[in-house]
Specification:
The chain is α+β, with helices and mostly antiparallel strands and 309 residues long. It is built from 12 helices and 14 strands. The radius of gyration is 25 Å and the shape is elongated.
Length: 309
């Protein structure tokens, strides 16, 4: 029987430690790396300590605010990262080729869109694919997919990033809406410039609140103000329903209230532009081989959302 040389055995035992280093390099955090690897933070720290001891070099610089690789750590990652990525893809393809699709998908989506339209579709998805697990993070903060460890982002945008794969799920549009009671009490604006005399409910973004409208090539930028600014379309929709003012909302938040007549569209001949995206996309990092669970989730979302809101 052939025997394994000590150095070869040591290298084989360090493969897990080297993989942990590549994940830390991608995510910039021991905590996020631990979540990706399914380990405790202490276990990931131990793996890096073992690797540093075996190589006799410091590979990771830790501070209270950040984690960064040393020059030796960066060089090691550069030499091994592609190999680990290839192994991961190969294992995924082999696993997906037979049996029930399985695996963990980490997904991020805006709060309102995720609550109202993505989350309700997951029950039927799990019924079809019970071996797939999903971690759904709802946040209105745009988060880098690779850096945050997400497999998929559902985004409301007009310009999906060229560096990622973007699958259009459906079209979307912005609507200027108000409750009939508000319009009865304050009158209905017939031109965007009249909004200056109305209570408006702008989305919370840096700088002064402004709405941009377009009609037959003419564009008007209108400063607006009112009793409430909020960073969530559900809050603004509910404020408009309460008669607090006019709100510029994406159709996925406003649809039911608009169809029931609880909200009505204002200035329908003027198109709000440059504020919300004109489509909903499923966006994921580019890979030569897309994992089957990811493909299935994207297709599930596309089938159910293709008609729009």
């Amino acid at each position: 029987m052939a025997t394994t040389k000590p150095s070869e055995l040591r290298h084989e035992l360090l493969w897990g430690q080297m993989h942990a280093l590549t994940v830390i390099s991608q995510l910039g955090s021991f905590t996020k790396a631990a979540q990706r690897l399914g380990l405790s933070k202490a276990a990931v720290s131990q793996r890096i300590a073992e690797l540093e001891k075996a190589l006799g070099q410091q590979l990771v610089h830790r501070t209270t605010r950040a984690v960064r690789l040393s020059e030796a750590g960066r060089e090691l990652v550069e030499q091994t990262e592609a190999s680990f990525a290839h192994i991961t893809r190969t294992l995924g393809v082999t696993r997906d080729a037979v049996g029930q699709p399985r695996g963990l998908l980490r997904v991020t989506a805006p709060v309102a869109l995720g609550r109202q339209h993505v989350a309700p579709l997951l029950a039927s998805f799990f019924q079809r694919y019970p071996e797939i697990r999903i971690e759904l993070d709802l946040s209105d903060r745009l988060q880098p997919l690779a850096q945050e460890g997400f497999d998929l982002a559902v985004r409301h945008t007009s310009s999906p990033p060229d560096s990622h794969v973007a699958v259009k799920l459906c079209s979307s549009r912005a609507l200027l809406l108000a409750a009939p009671a508000y319009l009865a009490a304050h009158g209905e604006p017939r031109h965007p410039e009249e909004l200056a005399s109305h209570a408006c409910l702008p989305y919370l973004r840096p700088g002064p609140a402004q709405w941009l409208f377009e009609k037959r090539g003419q564009r008007l930028r209108i400063p607006v103000q009112g009793p409430l600014r909020a960073g969530n379309s559900e809050i603004l929709r509910d404020a408009a329903l309460a008669g607090l003012g006019l709100a510029l909302l994406p159709d996925f938040s406003a649809g039911p209230a608009l169809r029931s007549g609880a909200l009505v569209e204002v200035l329908s001949d003027w198109k709000p532009v440059g504020f919300f995206g004109d489509a909903i996309y499923a966006i994921h990092p580019w890979s030569s081989t897309t994992p089957r669970p990811l493909k299935l989730l994207i297709e599930h979302l596309r089938q159910h959302l293709s008609a729009g809101f």
